[in-house]
Design a protein that fits this description.
By secondary structure, this protein is of the alpha/beta class. It has helices at residues 43-51, 73-78, 96-100, 116-129, 145-159, 175-190, 202-208, 231-239, 294-301, 324-329, 339-343, 350-355, 370-384, 400-411, 432-447, 459-465, 488-495, 497-505, and strands at 5-14, 17-27, 31-36, 58-63, 66-68, 81-84, 163-167, 194-198, 211-216, 219-225, 259-268, 271-279, 283-287, 309-314, 317-318, 332-335, 363-364, 367-368, 420-424, 451-455, 468-473, 476-482.
């Protein structure tokens, strides 16, 4: 099995675009190397080349010092290489066990009958290793996003790969799941594996990596020892400028007294008597561990999920939304947790995606007024500095940060007239420079009087961005904290009280 990996002179060209240009670096056995760069820097392209999904235009990959050509992901797997992508590559209609052992399903004797007992036993060993509460026979499509990500990670562990690349693996995970994954990575290091770790979360980079490679505009600009650098130095090399303290530089406003959203004793199959308010011009952070009910609360407000009882008041009037269309017409907007699956039409243009909420109002007879739709898209591109040569570019061809900007531009156009903006994990998988832009834009929208409900698994950004934090646990509100009292310790105390009680009893 392979132990070391080297990229030598790697280049990748697409029509009119040089995605990678003479990239050179080596990943050593028993080391974790962080691959950093802004969205669009070339990280994903490099991982696709490593996995065999794409071939480089120039250069070569060396495995244990030997030039190696991957014509397919199967070739990469055979060489002991696994890539865990940010976009999950699962078969949703099949079971957890079938996904983890895809291509290596145990059979009875010489086959072809599946040895289901052995399959489930081997899957259960992996699940127990990660301390998860998942049934091996559960259909993957019914799992939470966090557990789907853990299935991806278990797939790589099952292959017993000796070179593994993680692409933003912790984005949907809880603190407990992240800790379990880091323990697994430490074991991989001890086994002598070579690991590439892609993340925009600086605390993770400094915690688990040994070296850092920085890409910018497809070029390798620096290789650094993690212990000998700082977050500020890394950010400056990534974005090409000093962006200062991300949070202290934000321009803020004072929330108004007007209550835009009031939720009273909201109940769904997963929520229990949820009550809170959001004022005009206020950013309310909704915090909690994965599975606490944050996304479910957002979807219930937006009428994406039915409620069993309780009340939702908007602008002082009780609402009875039958569908998201009703919510949109009333001025409620949702940027969903999974922007690619739920927030965007990936193979339609920026212009089409911006126009989605108001397409009925852009119609002239049977056709959409492309002129007005284009004006809306042009304004969004300008307001959010979306990097694109044209508004007709497919959203699938944009970086993650620019895709998120398209969603924000859609909901804040003059045609939509948003009163309540719900942001669910709006910075997931986005680089630090783009995060700073989005933070400021959220503050600007609040200063215009829009009420903002901000959901994030990154406690640091919730604490620093929100005017007030509502903490959830087990589908209920466990407490509220004003900004002055919002520390990580205080938020986690409210978010994990039940877990703390269990540990005390044990």
């Amino acid at each position: 099995m392979a132990k070391t990996l080297e990229f030598r002179g790697i280049g990748k060209s697409y029509p009119g675009v040089r995605a990678l240009d003479n990239v050179n670096f080596k990943v050593e056995s028993g080391k974790v190397l962080a691959l950093l760069g802004e969205n669009g820097a070339g990280k994903s392209t490099l991982l696709k080349i490593l996995s065999g999904d794409q071939k480089p235009t120039d250069g070569e990959i060396l495995v244990d010092g030997k030039p190696t050509v991957f014509n397919s992901p199967h070739d990469a797997h055979a060489a002991g290489i696994s890539v865990i992508y940010q976009e999950r590559q699962l078969m949703p209609s099949m079971s957890v066990a079938e996904n983890i052992f895809a291509g290596a399903i145990p059979v009875k004797g010489k086959g072809p009958m599946v040895d289901w007992k052995k399959l489930y036993e081997e899957t259960k060993k992996l699940i127990d290793f990660f301390g998860l509460d998942i049934d091996p026979s559960e259909q993957v499509g019914r799992l939470s996003i966090a557990n789907q990500q853990m299935v991806e990670i278990m797939k790589a562990y099952r292959r017993n790969s000796d070179i593994i690349a993680y692409d933003e693996p912790t984005a949907p995970l809880s603190e407990k799941e992240i800790e379990l994954m880091f323990q697994g990575i430490e074991k991989q290091k001890q086994r002598g594996m070579a690991i590439i770790y892609v993340s925009h979360r600086m605390n993770e980079i400094f915690r688990i990596t040994d070296e850092i490679v920085i890409l910018k505009d497809g070029k390798h600009v620096a290789t650094m020892e993690t212990a000998k650098t700082t977050e500020a130095e890394l950010i400056t090399k990534m974005v090409g400028r000093d962006i200062g303290d991300t949070y202290s530089n934000l321009r803020r406003n004072t929330p108004k007294e007007e209550v835009v959203l009031e939720v009273k004793n909201l109940n769904t199959p997963k929520l229990h008597n949820v009550s809170f308010q959001v004022h005009a011009g206020e950013i309310v952070g909704l915090a909690g561990l994965v599975g606490a009910g944050r996304t479910e609360t957002a979807r219930a407000i937006f009428a994406a999920d039915p409620i069993t009882s309780g009340e939702i008041w908007l602008g002082g009037k009780q609402t009875h939304f039958k569908s998201p269309r009703d919510a949109i017409d009333a001025g409620v907007a949702l940027c969903p947790e999974d922007r690619k699956e739920q927030g965007l039409v990936m193979y339609r243009s920026i212009s089409d995606n911006i126009a989605l909420p108001v397409v009925e109002y852009l119609k002239k007879g049977l056709f959409v007024d492309r002129g007005i739709a284009g004006d809306l898209a042009d304004k969004a591109v300008s307001d959010y500095d979306i990097k694109t040569p044209t508004i007709m570019k497919l959203v699938a061809e944009l970086s993650g940060g620019n895709q998120q900007k398209v969603i924000l531009g859609r909901w804040t156009s003059d045609a939509v007239k948003t009163k309540l903006l719900i942001l669910d994990e709006p910075t997931k998988g986005i680089d630090v420079g783009t995060k700073a832009e989005i933070y400021q834009k959220v503050c600007d929208l609040a200063s215009e009087g829009i009420a903002v409900l901000f959901i994030s698994s990154e406690l640091t950004e919730v604490i620093n961005l929100a005017d007030r934090i509502v903490v959830m646990r087990g589908g209920s509100i466990s407490g509220e904290l004003p900004r002055a009292e919002a520390t990580e310790e205080n938020v986690l105390t409210l978010a994990m009280a039940d877990e703390a009680k269990k540990e005390a009893k044990a």
